[in-house]
Amino acid sequence: MNSATGRELLAMLPPRLAAATILAAIIDVRGMEFDAIKEGIEDVRQQLLVETATWALDRWEADYKLKSPAGYTDEERREPIIAKMRAPGRVSIEQIKKVAQAYARGLVKATANPDATITVQFIDKRGIPGNIEALKAEIRNIAPAHLDLVYIYLFTLVQELIDWDITVGGLTAACIAVEELKTWEPA
Prior knowledge:
- The protein is α+β, with helices and mostly antiparallel strands.
- It contains 10 helices and 3 strands; from the N terminus they run H-H-H-H-H-H-E-E-H-E-H-H-H.
- It has helices at 4-12, 15-18, 21-47, 57-63, 74-86, 93-104, 132-142, 158-163, 168-173, 178-181, and strands spanning 108-113, 117-126, 148-154.
- It has a 3-stranded mixed β-sheet, with helices on one face.
- Strand 2 (117-126), helix 7 (132-142) and strand 3 form a beta-alpha-beta unit.
- Helix 1 crosses helix 3, helix 5 (74-86) packs antiparallel against helix 6 and helix 6 (93-104) packs antiparallel against helix 7.
- The protein starts with a helix and ends in a 6-residue tail after the last helix.
């Protein structure tokens, strides 16, 4: 029996009928059809949420009037869609924060400053978010034009290495390159 649904249906039959090979074959074929329908329904259900959509991302992008550059991964295509969903209409600092979090996949602090700037600070993920140019474009698109945008990234500081009792010899022994140090944390 190839079908999970077919096995379930066969288990419901009385033993005398379940033993009939012709009936079992028919149930197996019908079960495979039901399995395919269940998979199709689940696939469509996945497309209803942007976080799990794959082949429906084109539709999501069209709905939000977005166009992704060729070569973007599904995850990179989802980020601007989620950002648009989080920042409808008039913008607030909270909306800018939500948009930045959609791209950064981490904690972000957004602050309106008296010197006509908005500061976007990445708090818990070290390094520069992978899709930073798209993030900057999206925030520039929703932020008031007269405000400057400042981005603050989180990197590993020398003082943190000292606080963690990390030595150059320890880093060398662990085969940690200088470039990796920017985002490195001890385990």
